[in-house]
Amino acid sequence: MSVKLRQQENKSGNPSLANQGFGQVNFEDPPQHFDISEARAATDFFEEHGFVVLKNCLDKTELTHLNEFFDRTQHEVPEKWGLGERRKPHHREQGLIFSQPLLDYPEIDQYTRHKGSFPLVARLLGGEDRVRFAELNFRETPADAGIGAMNFHHDAVNEDRFLREPYNPVDWLCAIHYLTDTQPGTPTFCVVPGSNRYETLSEAYEGLGSNYQETPLYGHAGTCVLYDTATFHARYDGDGKQARRTWHQYYARGGWLRSSLPTTDRYMRPPSRCLTDWNLFPERLVFNKDPKIRLFFSHWNTAQCEWVTSGFDAELRRSMPRGEQ
Question: Which of 102, 143, 228, 275 has the greatest count of CB atoms below 10 A from its CB?
C-alpha cells in the first residue's frame, strides 16, 4: 500500500502512550477490497499487512435475515443486548453486544462456516482441519450513543510470534462482517497495517516509520474484514449520528505445527489457547452428526468442559458469565 496520510491531532496527548493512536490517519488511499475468488492475492496481502478486506461476502437475503434478527431479538430479549435495566459494563465502550446468540438460536448456525469468508479463513489458518471456532457475537454502535473513542489494542497474542519462523499461520483470526454500510461519518473498524509484529503501538510507530498509518476500513454491507488478532486495531468513531451493525467471529488454530526458533532447529507450535474462559458451545454443535462440525467446535475451555459433563444443565449455564437464558 502506498501511504497518503492526513495528520490528525494526536488524541492521546502523549506520543509515548499512543492509546488512541498517533493521528496519522489514511483517508485517501484505502486498501484493496478483494473478491472472494481472489484467494491467492488476498492471502498474500494478509500475510504482509496482518489483515485483508473481502467484498460481497454476504448477499442481500443474508443481510436482510441478520438485520431482522437484530431487530427481533432487541425487541423480544432486550436483556441479551444490554438494553434492559442492568447495563453490561463492556457495553459502555463497545455499544450493544449480543454475546452468545448460538446458544439459543440455531438459525445462526449457517453462518459459522460461511461460504463467503470461511474458505479464506481455512487457508490462513493452515487448512480446514485446523480451524477451530472460538466465539461469535453481534454488535451495534447506536446512533448518538455518546461512546468515546476506543483505544488501539490487540486481542489474544502468543509471544513466540516475534521469533518463530515461519510466522504464519496466525494463532487467532477474527472476521468482522459489516451488516450495514460504513462510510466516512460512520463508526468503522480501523487497523494499523503491519503492526502485528510489534509488542506495543509505540514500537509499531517507531518501527514502521513512514509506513505507519491508522487505516479506517469502510465498505458496503456484506463486506468482511479478516485480521490477525495481534494486529493493533480500534473503532474509528464517526459523526455520532450514524449507527453500525457488525457480526464478529473469532477462530483459533488447532493442531501442532513444526516451526523453529533461534534457540532450536525444531519447535512444535501447540494449538492456540482458548480465547475466553466463558464462551459456551451448544450441544447440537458439540455433538453434531457431521465430524467436520464436531472438530470445528472441539476447542473447549473449562466452562465448556463442566457444562458438557453436567449434561448441558440449564441451571449451570445460568450460573456462568453471559450464560443467561
Answer: 228
Q: Is the dihedral of CA 183, 184, 185, 191 positive or negative?
A: positive
Q: Are residue 171 and residue 267 in the same domain, yes or no?
A: yes
* Domain that includes residue 117, residue range: 6-275
* pLDDT averaged per 10 residues in sequence order, the chain, 325 residues: 42 47 83 93 96 97 98 94 68 77 98 97 96 97 63 90 90 98 90 94 94 94 98 86 93 91 78 94 98 98 97 95 78
- Are 285 and 318 within one domain? yes
**Residues 233/227, Cβ–Cβ less than 8 Å:** yes
Place of cell 466465539: 135
237-290 pLDDT per residue, tens: 878 788 899 999 999 999 998 888 777 767 788 899 999 999 999 999 999 999
C-alpha cell of residue 293: 462440525
Which domain CATH number covers 74? 2.60.120.620
User: Per residue in 42-81, is it b (16+ CB within 10 Å) or e — as a string?
Assistant: bbebbbebbbbbbbebbeeebbeebeebbeebbeebeebb
**By C-alpha distance, which of 12, 88, 58, 80 is closest to 222?**
58
What does the alpha-carbon distance between residue 24 and residue 178 come to, in Å, rounded to a whole number? 24
- Cα-atom radius of gyration of the chain, to the nearest Å? 20
Judgement on whether residues 197 and 320 belong to the same structural domain of the protein: no
Say how many C-beta atoms besides its own lie within 10 A of residue 309's C-beta.
10
The total number of structural domains that make up the chain: 2
- Residue 324: closest CA among 70, 81, 93: 81
